[in-house]
Amino acid sequence: MADDYPKVDRVMGGPAGWISIAVPAVLFLYFLGLLPQIAEAPQVRGIDWVPSLDIRLSVLLDGLSMTFALLITGIGTAVTLYSARYLGQHPDYPRFVCYLLMFMVGMLGLVLADNLIALFVFWEITTISSYLLIGFHANSAKSRRSALQALLVTGTGGLAMLGGMIILGTVTGTFELSQILTMGDLIRAHPWYMGIMLLFLAGAFTKSAQVPFHFWLPNAMAAPTPVSAYLHSATMVKAGVFLMARMNPALGETSAWFWILTLFGGVTAVFASVMALRQTDIKQVLAYTTLMALGTLTMFIGAGTHYAIVAAMTFLVVHSLYKAALFLMIGIVDHATGTRDATVLRGLWKVMPLTGLAAALAAISMAGIPPMVGFIGKEFMYKAGLGLEGFAAIWVTGMIFAASVMMFVVGGIVALKPFRGELAPDLHQAHEGPWPMLAGPLVLGALSLIFGLLPGILGHYIVGPATRAVSGEDHEVHLYLWGGVNMALILSLLTFLAGWLMYRKHEAIRARLTAFEARSPIDFDAGWDRLLDGFKGFAAWQAALIQNGSLQRYMSVTFLTFVVLVGLTYVLQGAFVTGIAFSTDSIHPIQWTVLALICAGSMLVVWTHSRMTAVAAMGVVGIGVALIFIMFSAPDVAITQLLVEVLVVVLVSVVMLRLPYLPRRSRASFRPGHALIAAGSGIVMSFLAVSIMAGDLDRRLTTYFETVSYPEAHGRNIVNVILVDFRALDTFGEITVVVMAAIAAFALLRGAGPARRDKEEM
C-alpha cells in the first residue's frame, strides 16, 4: 500500500510535486497548440549533433509523433497530479519525481526523434528510468527482481535494435527517419532486409512485451500505482508499438512483416486475455489486458491495410484513455480499502460514487459498448479484420473476437463487481479519494465519452494524421459511431452476448484456469530464472577456465583470440595482399645491423631460462626499435621509446629482485603451443602491415598538420605541436593521470614502509 512508509509533511509533494505537474501540463498545451498545424503538414526541425557521424538532433512532427506526444504529456499531467497526493508525503518523493520526469523526457525524445541514433539514445533513457521506477521500493526484493528483469529483457532487445539501425543506416546512407521512410522499395529489395526487420522487431517485441517476452510486464506491477498507470497506458510499453508504426512505411508491405506481426500479435492478445481472467488482483488483471492491447496493436500494424491502420491508431487512443483511468482508479480503491482482491471488493459504490463513475466510464469503453469511443475502435477492428483475405481474415477477426469477449468480462471484473452489491463488512472504512486523485480518472473517462459522441474531432486531428504517417498514404479518415447494420455490428452484438455469458461464469472459469496453470509445465517467469542461472553458471565456468590466476594463460588466450579472429577474417574475405616488391638494394648496412640486433634480442627472449636475461633481452629489442625511429627522422619518438625501455628494464629488474622464488610451471625446454601462438601473431601482424602499406593512406590529417603547424602554432616540430597545441587538453589529461598515479604509488610505498620494517624486526 501507498501508506506503508514514514510520512513527511508536504502539501501536494512540495516544490517537487508542483514542478512535476507543471512540466507535462505546459508541454501538453504546447503540443495541443501545434496540433492543427501538424495535422495539415508534417514538419522536420533539428540541428547537427555529431556531424562527422551524420547524427542530427532532429525532430519529426507528424500525426504519429504528435499523437504520442499528446498522450505522454496529457496522461502524464493526470499521473503527476495523482502522484503528488498519492506519494507526496513519501520521504523519497523528490527522487520519484526525478525518475518520472526523466522517463517522460525519454519517451518524448523517442517519439519525436527524426534520427535513428537519437531515437536509440532516448530509447535507452526510457529503459534506465523505467528500471528505476519499477524498483522505486528498493527495500522490496520483488521490486528489485522485477526492475532487473525489465531492464535485462528490454535492454537486450534494444541492443539488437541498435544493430538493425546501424545496418539500415548503411543500406540507406542516412540515419534521418524522414528520408528513410521514403526508401521503402530500396530497403525491401535489399538482401539485408530480413536481418534489419528481425533486429528492429526484437527491440519492439521486447519493449512491448509480445509473447514470449511478455513475462516482465505483469511483474512490473511491483512499481507504485502511478508508475503502472503511466507505463501501461501511454509510455514505455507503447514504445515498441510506436517503433513498428514508425517503421511501417520502410519495413512493412511484405509477407514476412505481415505474418510475423499478425501471428505474434494475435497470440499475445488472446493469451493475455485468458491470463487476465485468471487473476484476482485487479491490478494484475489490468496488466494482462495491457498485453492484450499491445498484441492487438501489433497485429493491425502488421495487417497494414488502410482500415487496419485506422483501427490501430483509434485503439491506441482508446486504450490509453481507459487504461490510465482504470489504473488510477485501482490506486484510489487500494488507498481507501487496503486491498485489490477482486474476490473481496464489493459494494463500494455506496461510499465511493465518484471513483465508481470513473471506473464505469473507463470499463464501458474497454468493453466496447456505445456510445464510448471504445465501441468505435472495436467496430473498426472488426471491419479491418473482415477486409482481409483468406486465412488472414479468419485469424485476425477470430483473435479480435476472442480478445474482445474477454475484455468485456474483464471490464465487469474491475469496474462492476467491486462497486455493486452490499458493502463488505471489512470495507466500512473505505472513503472517497481526494480530488487530485479523482481528477485524472474522471477527465480521462469523460474524454472516452466525448470522443465517442464527437468522433469527427478525434478522426480529423488525431487518428487521420497518425494513419497517414503510419501508412505513408494520403487517405481521409472518417470515424463514426453508427455505421449501419453490417457484419461488424453483428460481431459486436455477439461480443456483448458472449461476454455477458462468460462474466456470469467467470469465477468458475478462473478456478479452471488456475487448476490448468498449476498443471502446466510452461512457466515463462520461472524459465527466466533458469536462464539467468544458466548464464551465471556459464560465467563461472568461463572465469574458472580463463581467469585462473595464470598470467601465461591470459596472454595465451589474448593472442590466440587475435590470431584466430583476424586471421579467419583474412581467409574468409580473401584479403591477402600480393604483388608487393621489396628491394634489398635500398636497405643500408646499418639497418641490417639494427634488424640483426632486434632478431638476436627476440631469439634470446625465447631460448633463455633466466627471467632477468629475458627482461634484458626485451630491452635490447626496445632499443633496436628506438634506433629505427632515429633512422627514419623521428627523434622525439625515439627518445620516448628509449626512456620507456630503460625505465621498464630497471623497474622490472628491481621488482624481480624483491619477489619471492616462483617455481616454473613447466620444465619443458620447448613449448610448441606457445611457439604456434607467437608465430601466428607475427604472421598476422605482418599481413596487417603489408596490407596497410599496399593500400592508399588517408593523408588528410597529415597534410593538415604539415600545413598549419608552423603558421598557426609557430612550431617546426610537428609532433611537439600536435601534443602541446592541437592535443593540449588530451596531453594535459595524460600528464595529470601520470602525476596522480605517481603520487598514489609514492603514498602506498611510503605507507607500506614502516609495516615492512616492523615485520623484518620481528
Provide an overview of this structure:
The protein is built from 30 helices and two strands. It has 762 residues and is mainly alpha-helical. A two-stranded antiparallel ribbon has the order 1-2. Helix 4 (116-134) packs antiparallel against helix 5 (141-172). It is elongated. The two termini are 63 Å apart. Residues 755-762 have low confidence and may be disordered.
Percentage of β-strand residues: under 5%
Pick out the low-confidence regions: 755-762
Radius of gyration: 34 Å
Largest sheet: 2 strands, antiparallel
List the helices and strands and how they pair.
Elements: H1 14-40, E1 43-50, E2 55-61, H2 63-86, H3 93-112, H4 116-134, H5 141-172, H6 177-180, H7 184-189, H8 193-207, H9 216-219, H10 225-233, H11 236-251, H12 255-278, H13 282-303, H14 306-337, H15 353-367, H16 373-386, H17 390-416, H18 435-453, H19 455-471, H20 487-504, H21 506-519, H22 524-546, H23 551-573, H24 589-607, H25 611-631, H26 635-658, H27 672-694, H28 700-713, H29 718-726, H30 728-761
Antiparallel strand pairs: 1-2
Concise summary:
The protein is mostly helical and 762 residues long. The chain is built from 30 helices and 2 strands.
